[in-house]
Specification:
Shape: globular
Radius of gyration: 18 Å
CATH class: Alpha Beta
Order of helices and strands: EEHEEHEEHHHHHH
CATH topology: Rossmann fold
Strand order of the largest sheet: 1-5
Number of strands: 6
Number of domains: 1
CATH superfamily: NAD(P)-binding Rossmann-like Domain
Structural class: mainly alpha
Length: about 190
């Protein structure tokens, strides 16, 4: 059984799932300060590869395999990544100012989302993805790339507006074009 963490990366459909909802909060002043919250992330393309590999590898039978990038990502780091890529293109991205825990304590009495995340503040999410690397040979996409690719796909699908300075995603380098997929799974 494969167990992915929060799945990010380019979208195939125009449905606003949990990961889209979270990433959109970094834009348009919806989050004036970021909570001290960490999340474990995994690229949707890595989840797809893991499923293909698990279906073709008998040694995975009966195992629970965590599919995730390590280490986890703090909201502040996610904001920095998104600011660097999208602020020059005219997008308002949440500040990297971190909300204090006392502010979050007060906010939780008025905001259901703050109430939900409050117990997780200051806790670094740590998982062990060794089994996925050993049994499946997984090589994970860095979340920086996944987050950026996700936002570009959200813009291209009309889930976020195209700003006048929008330039679109950069062309991948030739060594980035081929995914780390075993030859027997290539079409």
């Amino acid at each position: 059984m494969l167990n992915p963490t929060l799945i990010v990366g380019p979208l195939l459909i125009d449905v606003e799932g949990e990961s889209v909802t979270i990433v959109k909060k970094f834009f348009g002043h919806e989050m004036p300060a970021v909570p001290k919250l960490s999340l474990a992330l995994v690229d949707v393309r890595d989840v797809a590869v893991a499923h293909l590999l698990a279906m073709t590898a008998e040694e995975t039978n009966g195992h629970r395999i965590l599919i995730t990038w390590q280490p986890s990502f703090w909201f502040k780091d996610m904001a920095k990544i998104l600011q660097k890529e999208f602020r020059p293109q005219g997008y308002s991205v949440s500040t990297t100012y971190q909300a204090s825990n006392w502010f979050m304590f007060i906010l939780k009495h008025f905001n259901d989302e703050a109430k939900t995340i409050y117990p997780r503040l200051d806790l670094e999410v740590k998982f062990d993805n060794t089994k996925s690397k050993e049994l499946l040979g997984m090589k994970y996409t860095p979340p920086e790339k996944s987050l950026i690719d996700m936002v570009y796909s959200m813009i291209d699908r009309g889930m976020m507006p195209k700003k006048s300075k929008y330039r679109g995603p950069r062309e991948p380098a030739s060594d980035e074009k081929a995914a780390d997929m075993p030859d027997h799974l290539r079409i």
